[in-house]
Amino acid sequence: MGEQTYGIDPAVATQIARDVAEILGMGVETAIVIGGGNIFRGVAASARGMDRATADYMGMLATVINALALQDALEQQNVVTRVVTAIEMRSVAEPFIRRRAIRHLEKGRVVVFGGGTGNPYFSTDTAAALRAMEIKADVILKATKVDGIYDADPMVKTDATRFERISHGEVIKRGLSIMDTAAIALARENNIPIIVYSIHEKGGFGDILRGGGRCTVVADD
User: Fold this and answer.
1) Is 15 helix (H, G, I), strand (E, B) or coil?
2) Are 142 and 196 in contact (CB under 8 A)?
3) How far is the C-alpha of 35 from the C-alpha of 42, rounded, in Å?
4) I need a surface site. Which of 5, 44, 121, 153 has the fewest CB within 10 A?
5) Greatest extent of the chain over all pairs of C-alpha atoms, in Å
6) Do residues 79 and 147 both lie within one domain?
7) CATH at 56
8) Domains in the chain: how many in total?
9) Distance (Å, whole) CA 135 – CA 100
10) Where does a domain end: 137, 152, 169?
11) pLDDT, tens only, 200-213
């Protein structure tokens, strides 16, 4: 969305694509689970009276729009990309088949997962944890507005303290809302670390994977 109030900023999509292209050049197999809040938020619509399941399905469709936009941006960076959706729409994307998605990654393609989990009442955070387990990912990187997990909202409390490292259990215990509890719990049960960093930091993706950058590592060991 960038600085816009709605929709897709092509410049932001291009920057994300460049960051992904950089780490692909490092030999890192990369899959992306994308949200849709810049277009439609199912939870917000539900709070205004819309049927929750209907609102969530609309949100899932918004993620597919974003997935196609990101695919276009990636392919402009000469990155071979496949959009894979939890809800079948064969004219624009492949249906999710776990072994096929893994094969795309093995061939050096970026896989963009759209449509969340395909079920209402589950967020794209939960979809990310689920897909990470299914493709046997080594780590989940949560790209967000801030450069890690803080003990309070840094947008509100200027003296909030950023954690360098924290356990999955402590995130849940403290109610730190960087990801849904279900997503954190899934990652903990399957021993998948989560790294939270800022999507606004140019080159931040590569910096994190090289062992630098500002971030918070969520891990139990």
Assistant:
1) helix
2) yes
3) 11
4) 5
5) 49
6) no
7) 3.40.1160.10
8) 2
9) 10
10) 137
11) 988 999 999 999 99
pLDDT in tens, 140-154: 999 999 999 999 888
Question: Quick check: helix, strand or coil at residue 16?
Answer: helix
Rg over alpha carbons for the chain, rounded to the nearest Å, is 17
Tell me how many degrees the CA angle 145-87-128 measures, rounded to the nearest 5. Answer: 35
Coil/strand/helix, residue 197? strand
- Residue 42, pLDDT above cutoff 90: no
Report the first-to-last Cα separation within the chain, whole angstroms: 36
Beta bridge partners, 74, equal: none
Looking at the predicted structure, is the pLDDT value of residue 59 above 80? yes
The amino acid sitting at 160 is A
Residues 127, 156: one domain? no
Domain boundaries, position 72: 1-137
Identify the pLDDT of residue 3: 87
Q: Which of 92, 121, 137 is the last residue of a domain?
A: 137
